[in-house]
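look at this record:
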Amino acid sequence: MRGLRQGVLGAALAVAAVVGAGAGAGAAGPVDGPEADLSHHGHVALWDGRLGVLLVSENHGPAALSRATVRLAFSVPMAGGYELPSACLWSSDRVVSCRTGELPADGGGRALALDLRTAGLPQELTVEVTTAWRDGSVDRNPANDRHHVLVLATGDPYVF
């Protein structure tokens, strides 16, 4: 068992080194627009065919961000007929896209709450959170605005 743990730890460290190298390599490139560091964090819970999402989008600067779009993609279809917040729209039965509004540099975040229904009663699903558009700004730290979350139908919040 010890060998297995060491192998898993070694693999995790190797992945971290490759991901870190990729982030550093991207940071050395030219800047095409203002630089902003957009991040998305929150939690997701699934129970009895209901999916609750709390999403907070923030900009860690250095430049303000006039607007951006965050995309939430679900591994199972959502039931239709439920109203979304005014900043959001359905891209398909598995994808919701939402505007963040203006995000000042190093300013407070914008919170968004979704109360969705799944088409069936899945025991689990995945949610992929990504920035779809960031108004021409450059983000040298895109890792904090991309998340892949496995959510079990326990009602527990899964934090990202």
